[in-house]
Design brief:
Elements (H helix, E strand, L loop, with lengths): L4 E3 L2 E4 L4 E6 L10 E6 L5 E7 L6 E3 L7 E6 L4 E6 L8 E7 L17 E2 L3 E6 L1
Parallel strand pairs: 2-11
Antiparallel strand pairs: 1-3, 3-8, 4-5, 4-9, 5-6, 7-8, 9-10, 9-11
Length: about 130
């Protein structure tokens, strides 16, 4: 499976929306658990959201629940993160994460359970 590539970041004002996308080459895309993580300036990387291979189950960090939506299009091999009602504290670099194929589809929040991360896309939310 190729390294995931993120896009869609940018500079927005508080209350606005952005949609991030992540593409990954390879024939296993539709069979992989995927997620989003972020790193704010001066802070550790943190879990944002995760989704099972079929998209039927999702998991969110409490800080983004009800504002962000993770989804995927397995035909297009693309993962999405719709971010609404953005806040300045959402500022950071957002990373797409892929877990190697496994029958275990538990939506772990630790980055240790993901094998590949993209280079990230920057999201900046001004107040």
């Amino acid at each position: 499976q190729g390294q995931p590539v993120e896009s869609g970041g940018g500079l927005v004002q508080a209350g606005e929306s952005l949609r991030l996308s992540c593409t990954a080459a390879g024939n296993l895309f539709s069979r992989l658990v995927m997620g989003w993580f972020r790193r704010a300036p001066g802070k550790d990387r943190e879990f944002v959201a995760a989704i099972t291979s079929s998209g039927t189950a999702t998991e969110y960090a409490d800080s983004v629940k009800s504002r962000f939506t993770i989804s995927r299009d397995n035909v297009k091999r693309t993962l999405y993160l719709q971010m609404n009602s953005l806040k300045p504290e959402d500022t950071g670099t957002y990373y797409c994460a892929v877990r190697s194929f496994s029958s275990d589809e538990t939506l772990y929040r630790s980055g240790d359970h993901y094998n590949d991360f993209g280079r990230g896309t920057q999201v900046t939310v001004s107040s």
